[in-house]
Design a protein that fits this description.
By secondary structure, this protein is of the alpha+beta class. It has a domain at 8-87. It has helices spanning 8-16, 35-42, 51-63, 89-98, and strands at residues 21-26, 29-34, 43-44, 73-76, 84-87. Strands 3-4-5 form a 3-stranded mixed sheet. Strand 1 (21-26) and strand 2 (29-34) form a beta hairpin. The longest helix has 13 residues, at 51-63.
Amino acid sequence: MEENKLTKQENDALAIFGKGKTIYQVAGNDVALSFDIVRNYLTKGNGQVSDQDIVQFISICKFNQLNPFLNEAFLVKFGQQPAQMIVSKEAFFKRADASEQYEGFKAGIILIRDNQI
């Protein structure tokens, strides 16, 4: 498939996002993403991302309420490899903190010396 020709699914996705633009809310703040913003400011690596990659990235960010400007999600592409989306651990921690069932976690080192803890 040539880079400039879009499938029906991609065309439908573009229509949903108002020709490549979408605005959604994360934690009460508006996040505006467009093809140009993602391509020029939010993509990491040296590969050229396709429109399909960008539609998928915007969709995942929107439906999972991720803010890529706060480094909660990254779109990474190197060379001819497929593009990858990475969700930061901070996004998972924020989601966990928002849950009533989450009781936090403990971290530390247990030192045993001369059979004493």
